[in-house]
Amino acid sequence: MGVPAFFRWLSRKYPSIVVHCVEEKGKEVDGVRIPVDTSQPNPNDVEFDNLYLDMNGIIHPCCHPEDKPEPKNEDEMMVLIFQYIDRIFSVVRPRRLLYMAIDGVAPRAKMNQQRSRRFRASKESADKAKLMTEMREEMITKGCHLPPVKPSSERFDSNCITPGTPFMFRLANCLRYYIHDRLNNDPGWQDIMVILSDANVPGEGEHKIMDYVRRQRAQPNHDPNTRHCLCGADADLIMLGLATHEVNFTIIREEFKPNQPRPCDMCGQMGHEMKNCEGLPKEMCGEHDELSKPIGNECEFIFLRLNVLREYLEKELKMDGLPFEYDFERALDDWVFMCFFVGNDFLPHLPSLEIRENAIDRLIKLYKNAVYKTGGYLTDSGVVALDRVQLVMSELGTVEDEIFKKRRDDEMNFRRRTKAKKERERRQQNFRNQGGLLGAVPIGQGGAASSNLRAQAYQMRKQNMSTSNQANTNAATELKQLMGGKKKDEDSDEEPADDVRLWEDGWKDRYYSQKFDVDSDDIKFRRTVANHYVRGLCWVLRYYYQGCASWKWYFPYHYAPFASDFVNIGELPNDFEMNTKPFQPMEQLMSVFPAASKKHLPPTWQTLMYDPESPIIDFYPINFKIDLNGKKYAWQGVALLPFVDETRLHQGLQSVYPDLTEAERKRNILGSDKLFLSIKNQAYSFFEALYEGGGPQTKAEAAQIETTHTNGMGGIVWCDSLRVETGGVVMSPLDALEDLTDNKTICIQYQDPTFEANHLFEAKTLPGAVFPGRVLKPEDFNQNNRNQGYRPQLGFQRGSGYRPRGSSDVTAALRMIRNTTGMQGQGFVMSSQSMQPSYVPYGFGGGGGGGGGRGGQQYGGNQGGQQWGNSSNNNAWNSNMARQQDAYSTNLARQQNVYRPIPGSSSNSGGYGGGGSQGGVGGYDGGRRGYGDRSYGGGGGRDGGRPPLRGGYGDARGGRGGYQRREDNYQRADDRRSNQHSNRGGQQDRYRPY
């Protein structure tokens, strides 16, 4: 899960780290779908070597999506997972390795968070089901029409996505089939190796990946210029990627788009929440059937370039005048360490540090002061110098009181502004309802907007609906009045209860008294909590840099101490118990599952969760308190669950272990990774020889990999009992998919290279590593306007420092030109100097589309032709077309508060899509003023050459880019909707943030 809001903060502070992925789509010819040929050069202008998939980030959205109806059954879920992997593979196109890592058994420190999430989800599901039952009964009584209730046995319990369940065991089998299929049939897969680390292999998915990277880096034949790409949405992946010190490390993730529509939980329709549900219309037939459910928009992917983040941090962390040589790699590790204080998966964040309050910037200032004073860094390859951390905490402790008071002032100001805004909106709505300026317009009298065919079709549908729909609405309205007291108003301005009141004197005494139930003057207890927290910081850092230091350690409190409670921490031990072992998968299930998810466990194990005589019944409370801890919503609160006692758990399970069936025993073992490769891979003969010679059958007999065959990848291998022989049949685990005949893929068990228990993986860049070319320009570091110079872009464009391996590929270059709307790293919005000649050559393309018209609806918008010597090659420079993404309009700088003006956006500018109020000046020919029919905006400038060709989409109608209504600020980019601010016909330079 990582740090809440960390990625949002990071991408706003360092905007150039994000670029949008270029994704080629499959085509359909004569009804036959032609998939993307992933063996072709990557359209993102970069060739990756290794792709790592944090699989749980793929499994969850495929099995229980939030923006579309759920899959009907497990088979559909598996197919959706396959398709998602195909998309990621098509974008990244790894050339050496694909690593799929599913979460296995986690360390105890992580289990506490998993336990909290699963119990909370179970409680919320039960509360929601109860409310839905009550609402359903009353809605049906009042005449509402609703879809049939799905039997509880068919409802998907997302808690089953946990190691040891039948679902995860089946998923592993399905992925084995999928890997065989792609290696046998997909040209883009046939030269790569695939590692599958399923749920029986202990460790969190992302940390299994990091263990692999860390251990490969320590191999003598490792390529220091390997290009890594890690897929996952957790914020901690950013810190993990930086901690590798690999110079070419990129993260790919879904682009987050807030406020996406979700289907109603009651009726399944889009457009409203459950609390506003009015039921389904009576079932209709033909073209007006309203029961069809819209499917959510396909997500888009972004790259997060860690090499660019390193550039930002190199500037941010620079310290001059140190009494020793400055080492950025050490300072980078210290930055990663400081991020732990604002939150991670294993420790609660310190009360005085909130990411939204620029806590990391505050820590950086304190950190630099500490480095100057102590003459050294805070960390070294995962080991913490606690005496130096003490100085940072002491300095932070002196300003905690000030931080809490300022936070309170900010909250009260925000609450006042929000209340005033709601009051304004209420008054405006009342004005509209009373027939104000924006009152309803009868159909047929709305001018251009009313002529929209889609709007007419909608009005016809409304008129043709049966009268039962009105009865449905009336019944629902009546029901809402009856149930008014049953549903909490989430928009309430009521202040959440807070007995601690950190902004008032005596806050520390109240905090320990309320949260820990100890005497307010128990100073010794405060030191104990702080010491445990310090141990946690040491454990987390070692976990990131060296691997799991202890499977048993965990932080034994629900709340963090204050910075001022860290006293004499330099004297604390910094080591952990050696050779600890992880839980078995089903032991973890018993540790993290609520009783409501017991169906995923063997029958006698289930009994321990609900039988009053169970020796561990107290581990599974049905009701538990959620402490809002000063927050507004329950999901932000702290679930006060009892911690699982490991000794008592194992004792309680001794009586039921003999009841496991053979299938259950297989699900309960700690397994190993599986390595797959095609017969076309250069290493195939090496692995095939192991089987032909009756090679190693157990891990104890494992053979070392000859790294000359595997691009330097080391490790040990032994035979897999589930291997399908060459020429054999791979049985399909899904009814909808066929068996694979004539298998040409080999599978073998694999383990990463091993090292001595006390081995230290050095946190440094490797000899021979070549840093990518620098991307950032001086204006990117402008502290007064840190977003200055930012250009949104698609893919790793030229100038980013990335190049394909070997000689340049003309085909890839041409593909990049076709698939991007910017060039040379300039992105969508060009600066006034970029690529602009000192004169306008004879015959160059038409001027920009006209500016906004005089009427209320403006179709102007800088969509000039911009044809460099070829009037048929419209690259749409500075246009609002946003060809690759609906959400990208020209002035989009989505993390910025001040948008950059488009050059030539006022009055008579021309040449580069200017288009002002009179139309852009194009070439040598001036723009036509003609405002056109229905006030579409100024005419586009003409071609500028001798033939009187139209500029852009110009002439009398202007460009048709940028469609705006005064009352709602909607914009259409290339006649597609884009919920961003319109550029208002190119007449405004500075827009308000939204």
UniProtKB/TrEMBL annotation:
Q: Which residues form the CCHC-type domain?
A: 264-277
Q: Which residue intervals are annotated with compositional bias (Low complexity) in the record?
A: 868-878
Task: Give the location in the cell.
Answer: Nucleus
Tell me where on the tree of life, at the top rank, the source sits.
Answer: Eukaryota
Residue ranges with Basic and acidic residues bias = 964-978
* GO MF term list: 5'-3' RNA exonuclease activity; RNA binding; zinc ion binding
Give the Polar residues compositional bias ranges.
781-790
Composition bias, Gly residues: 843-867, 910-925, 951-962
Question: Which GO biological process entries does UniProt record here?
Answer: mRNA processing; nuclear-transcribed mRNA catabolic process; rRNA processing
Q: What does this protein do?
A: Possesses 5'->3' exoribonuclease activity. May promote termination of transcription by RNA polymerase II.
What's the name of the protein?
5'-3' exoribonuclease
| Phylogenetic lineage | Eukaryota, Metazoa, Spiralia, Lophotrochozoa, Mollusca
